[in-house]
Amino acid sequence: MSASDRDEALRELGRMARERREDVRLSLEDIFERTRVRVEFLRGIEEGNYQGFPDIVYIKGFVRTYLSVVGAEDLKDEFVSWLNRDTTVKVQDLPPTNVLGTFPPKGFKLASHFWLFVVLILVLVGSGGYVWYSWANGPGPIARTNRVFDPPSAAGVVSDEVESADIVFTASPDQNFLSILPASANVVPEPDPKPEKPYLHVKAKMDVWMEVTIADKVVYSKTLKAGSEASWDLPSRAKVLYGRPNALEVVLNGKALGVPNLKPSKTETYYYEPDGTYRRAQ
Q1: In total, how many domains does the chain have?
Q2: What pLDDT digit, counting tens, does each position of 144-190 carry?
Q3: Helices (H), the chain
């Protein structure tokens, strides 16, 4: 296979992809707004011209994202097949600062092999710390995967199939920068705990007769022995008649109300509401 055959095949596939884009009435700018892949890269895909693209891994990721947006996923396998036949893609001599930045930073000079040794030590220490952290905190993002792109609605690009990890490229306000996060970094919020049902709870300090009425139905009418306890759900208001209000302690929805009346009394009636309010009958 000659290079010209490969170039011609990629140009023809790019033409077919452009027709799919025109069929769905999308411009290159529309695709950029959805994916944050630069317009010149999108135009290069349609023209079969990959001059100036970054590494082959990014090319495949850009192509797959483009195809998913225009609904041309059926062309993906043929695109990847031709791209894989010769992975020596012509790129610019300058480093791809529009994707991941450059190293070393501007102004940094390696004056001697000593600095190379220092940088190597730092890299090894950082890698060892990451491996230890991943082992200590359960499975990390390292896993072989066949996932190659997110749904078109997501503003991001997922890289080519890789051997070591799922890598997600997320868009930033600056169109010339893409940040990298492991796919497993998505955090699912825990659901709020369900609130407890309203309830009424009493504990007798002395023998006390009482009558409990809920929803116009008498649910309890007898003597509660000293040291005994009783509870009732409160789907609606409870009316409680105490023979001796100073003989027991009351808890409403988990809140201790104490003794209804500390002073000795013959009988008293109280109303308890599901919302936690209560009052003595006049």
Answers
A1: 2
A2: 344 444 444 444 444 444 433 344 444 444 444 444 445 444 556 66
A3: 3-23, 28-35, 39-47, 56-70, 76-85, 113-136
- The verdict on 127 and 228 lying in the same domain is no
| 36 contact partners, CB below 8 Å, separation of at least 6 | 155, 156, 157, 171, 172, 175, 178
* Share of the chain residues as helix, strand and coil, in percent rounded to the nearest 5: 35, 20, 45
Q: Say whether the peptide bond before residue 104 is cis (omega within 30 degrees of 0).
A: yes
Residues 86, 17: one domain? yes
Residues 125 and 233 in one domain: no
Question: Rounded to an integer, what distance in angstroms lies between the CA atom of residue 185 and that of residue 162?
Answer: 17
**pLDDT tens, 110-143?**
445 677 778 888 888 887 777 777 666 655 443 4
pTM for the structure as a whole: 0.34
Asked if residues 262 and 250 have their Cβ atoms less than 8 Å apart, the reply is no
Tally of residues, the chain: 282
What b/e string do you get for 141-159 counting C-beta neighbours within 10 Å, with b at 16 or more?
beeeeeebbbeeebebbbb
- Sort strands 199-204 and 208-214 into parallel, antiparallel or unpaired: unpaired
Quote the DSSP letter at residue 237.
-
pLDDT digits (tens, 9 = 90+) for 267-276: 889 999 999 9
Q: Are 182 and 203 within one domain?
A: no
Mean pLDDT score across all residues of the chain: 76
For residue 161, give the CATH number of its domain: 1.10.260.40
Is residue 87 a part of any domain in this protein? yes
